[in-house]
Amino acid sequence: MITQKCNIKDIYRRKIKVPKFQRDYVWDDNNRLELWEDLNNYLEDTKNVFFLGTILLIGKEVTADNAQNEEYEIIDGQQRLTTMTILLLALKVRSERVSGNAGDNGYKEIWKNDELKEPLAYSVHESIQTILNGGSGVLHAPFTFTPNEHIRKTFIAMAEDGWRGTLDPETNSQIRDDDFGEVKKTFEDFEGKMRDIINNIDTDIEKYEYILKLYNLITKTEIIEVVNESREEAGRIFEGLNDRGEPLGVGDLMKNYILMSIDDQKNKEKEDLAKQDSFIKRWREICQRTNQKDDSNNPKNPKNPKNPKPASITTMLKHFAQMVSHTRVAKSNLYKELKSYYDKECEKNYDTFLNKLNTFSEIYQDFIISNHETVAAFKNTMKKYTDESVDNKLYLATNLFRIHSLINPTPMICSLFFALKEKEIKIKHFTSAILSIEKYSVVHQWILDKHTNQKDFDYKDYSAFLYNKRLEETVDNKPKLVPETTEKIVTKFINSFNTETISRKEFIKDFKKLSYQKSAKDKQIVNLLLRIRSYDDPIESNDVHIDSITYKSGYECEHFYPASKREAEAVYKESSIYDVDNIGNLLPLSEKRNKEFSNSLPSDKYKKFSEESDSSDKVYLDKFIAEYKKDFEGWNLKAIEERADKLANKAYDIWGAS
């Protein structure tokens, strides 16, 4: 067995394939977001190198420099290596476009320009092509890293010049839609984030400086490469690396570190051994709050949906570390930051550390992963944190964070709950901060689909400012942490959203483009429609009404004019954003009613709606019928547009207005 530290370039010098028994590519939005956050943290940290973890290969035990003619199977790390390949392809596309735009502006070969801090002999996109081909220089040769056949063909398609997100149905007929979809979504996510950043940079030189900076960070990324010729031995190593499904094992590492620190006190009396037992018990209780190992709550087979959905222990610890530490914690340095906090801030006192983590885990369970099915249940939980009156808008906002897994604000939300629990802020001030987060999330992430990295950094920074009661101020032209009241910190956090205002015209324009996509965004539309329904009612005091319009997991988007009949009427064939999938034609209905009425025309649906004496949909439908009854017979694109416009204006009054 050989074990060596190498970088991304070294990895692609080997011919690596994914064996057939490996699972498909499964990285989702959260995985991609975490990697992108980690990369951004290291982008500004020029002293350290980004570390991707360990990759386990089966094959001849030689270094990458001597392995060009050998073939290896990847046993551990294929998801990460697949993602890094997609990331490089996305950067290749961005580099080509920046170079092309620079060429239009008079720069013939911008990567050789003397104005760059680090001019290159070849463009970034040419260099990436060479890396992915293992230095062969053959354009579009099969990559040295070969995932399953479907994904490999998708890679080759994405590597073509002028890639625009579509596949040739003749040459790529064997590519499965689900494989292509995940790979394409990852590509579009990374490429879109790069595009948003580059579009906010003024000059061509500065844009290419960013390309170079990201290219250098990615290609210098370090990996521990383990190569073994024995499949049996490699299997044992794999089990060790992936014990209990936590590849990084941060929870176990931290638990063992604290246990060793207790043992290092050289106190072997029975009462000190009991401390270790007590610590293990409390640690287990904290970890169990994530509900990670409860099979009855598996999100793919929810037998008991009332219980909390499972969450990653590592993710919870990362959010805790981001809240207590002034460092922007990445997953790769999470263990280091937790150790530092335990050693320095807690002075290796495990009771101090556990008490803080225990309170955090309670907040995490109560408001990040638990399901409050009614306002009453939510308010009952809130009694643990405040004896003040709770606004129903707070219930709707916290439900929104949980239902839609809004990850980035989590440390700040938890820090606010800490301050509320310790009676350091009033419920009114607390609610204003939560509603500010909600407004920003709905407008920029759901409707405009262009939230900024800076706001993600604000969440992390202010969570630590608030928790530690220190605010960053400029002293002698240098940033310095100074003691500050929680009220001033929260006020400054709320004011940070003032720069994120949006005009009614811009908001309405983007809102009216929302449509049914058969994706995760559909439940966002369901939630938006239900929340807008509450706009005309006094939601502050009507708990029963709030329960009726709160997002239900069984609700779906129903097309009022049925999608199945769009070809039957010429009016729905017009080229317009106001088609049957547009938000103006969508109703949030229970799954049962959706199936029952799915193919009925608007006038028939109206009759069936009217015949129902009671249902979970009734509150919403009664209002819809009263407002749009006159349009049911001639429901067309104009009616859809008018409803979309009304919904957009109401939505702006709820979330867009300052």
Shape: globular
User: Helicity, in percent?
Assistant: 40-55%
Q: Give the beta-strand count.
A: 10
Q: Which range does the strand content fall in? A: 5-15%
Tell me what the structure shows:
This protein folds into 4 domains: 2-241, no CATH class; 250-369, no CATH class; 372-500, no CATH class; 507-656, no CATH class. 53% of the residues lie in helices and 8% in strands. It has helices spanning 8-11, 29-43, 78-104, 124-132, 149-159, 177-199, 204-219, 231-241, 250-263, 270-288, 313-324, 334-345, 350-369, 375-382, 392-403, 410-421, 427-447, 453-468, 486-495, 504-511, 521-533, 543-549, 591-597, 602-611, 618-628, 637-656; strands spanning 2-7, 15-17, 51-58, 71-76, 145-146, 222-228, 470-475, 478-483, 555-559, 586-590. The protein has a 6-stranded mixed β-sheet with strand order 1-6-3-4-2-5, with helices on both faces. It has a two-stranded antiparallel ribbon with strand order 7-8. Strand 7 (470-475) and strand 8 form a beta hairpin. Helix 3 packs antiparallel against helix 4.
